[in-house]
Write a structure and sequence with these properties.
Length: about 80
């Protein structure tokens, strides 16, 4: 699943609400882990605080000049 919040709606908590809804749906379907990837130019700080996930990997210069961070969160706790 991909989530994207258009510029006029950012910084209003909508992204956080979408991530929370995705987590709830995943739990209802019996999922045990959630993986999230975000780029530096997106919202990595919001991603970590919204989902209380743990950074598990990073790719530098992906895309060139930026980085991508991968997060993991256990859903069965």
């Amino acid at each position: 699943m991909f989530l994207w919040v258009a510029e006029p709606y950012r910084r209003a908590g909508l992204g956080r609400a979408l991530v929370a809804a995705a987590e709830d749906e995943a739990r209802s379907r019996g999922c045990k882990l959630l993986f999230l990837e975000t780029h530096d130019f997106q919202a990595p700080r919001a991603s970590t605080s919204a989902s209380a996930s743990k950074a598990v990997g990073r790719y530098d210069d992906y895309p060139l000049g930026y980085g991508q961070t991968s997060f993991r969160k256990r859903l069965d706790r």
